[in-house]
Every structure is written in C-alpha cells, then in structure tokens.
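Quick illustration for those who missed Monday's session on complexes.
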Amino acid sequence: MRILALSGSLRRDSLNTRLLRAAQELGGPGVEFLSYESLAAIPPFTQDLEHRQPAEVHELRQRIESADAVLIATPEYNGSIPGQLKNALDWVSRPLAANPLRNKPAVVVGASTGAFGAVWAQAELRKVLASIGARVVDAEAAVGHAPTRFDEDGTLIDEDLREQLGEVVDALAAAITERAELARTAA
Ligand SMILES: Cc1cc2nc3c(=O)[nH]c(=O)nc-3n(C[C@H](O)[C@H](O)[C@H](O)COP(=O)(O)O)c2cc1C
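Prediction with flavin mononucleotide bound:
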C-alpha cells in the first residue's frame, strides 16, 4: 500500500516535516511512503481555472490518485491551517464529485513549538478533508513542544511519540485494507 506524505509547512527545518519523516520509518511490511515536496509551487486558487488546472496542481492530483491514503502533518498558523495547504486542498477539491481525495483514507498529525501540538489546526484540517469527501481516520498525534522531540539532526528521540506515530500509521493502513475489502465486496 502506498501512502502519500504531505507536510503543510514550507519551512526548511520544519518540525512537521520531521514528524512526517519519522512516521515514514514506521510503516510495516508492504507500506510504501511517497513524499510530496512541491507544495510551494502551487499557484493561488482561482475558480476561473478549476476546469483547466495548472500543471503543478495536476501533478499533486496525480500523486494523490496514485496513493492509497494520505498522511498530512500540519503546523498551526493563528489557530488554523497554513494558507498554502488550504490553497492546495481547494484546488484538489474541484470538481467536488471527481476529486482525488473522495473516499480516500486520510490521517492528520501536527507539531507546534507551544504546548498544544497544533490541535486547532488539526481539527480544522480534519473538517476540511471531511468536507472534500476524504475518509478521515480517527487517529492523532498532537506534538507539543516539538523541538524537544528531535535531536539536532532532526531524528525523533521521543520513544512514546514514536509509538504513537506507529499507531497512526497502523490505523491508516487498516483504513486502506478496509476500503479495499469494501470495494471487493461491492464488485
Ligand atoms: C504565522 C504563524 C502563526 C503561528 N500561529 C500559531 C498558533 O496559532 N498556535 C501555535 O501553537 N503555534 C503557532 N505558531 C508557531 C508554530 O507552531 C511553529 O512556528 C511551528 O514550528 C511551525 O511548524 P513547522 O516547524 O513545521 O514549520 C505560528 C507560527 C507562525 C509562523
């Protein structure tokens, strides 16, 4: 199974990107992670182009389509998700009936420098994904005081968090299996 990993932060030393990298080491056999690292290239959304989407958006759509599930790590910016992440999701959501996130298992994690681990942003992102039609998996990792969880090289050093991230990846893998079984029985 293939999981697309997407960080909502464009920052070079992003804690959320580190969190995603740590999660990518925790998939069991048969789990392959694909990284999406072109979020910065997505142009501003305009509904004028929703039926002639830019090449950068087309590529993101294809990356989502080719994955069985999506794992997103989001920072919290002013109580919500970063604008560029929302912008990308707005593009991908159109047209709503044929968007590549429809019925796709998706899970959200998040890291912040403060105590709360981007919980508001994660709640907002789950709401946005559900509104787009993704199957939002009920698992979470809200990583507060995130700089203390990684060493200078960006390696995860918090074993409890490693376990929690492993549970998130397992929950996503279970959702992929469940979706595949549903598709088989419906066929
Ligand atoms: C524009 C901006 C707004 C922020 N707003 C919040 C916030 O509402 N809540 C919070 O916990 N942290 C907030 N922060 C701090 C981020 O949690 C912190 O910068 C975090 O490291 C960003 O994620 P990244 O390391 O993946 O880039 C904000 C940071 C920025 C740059």
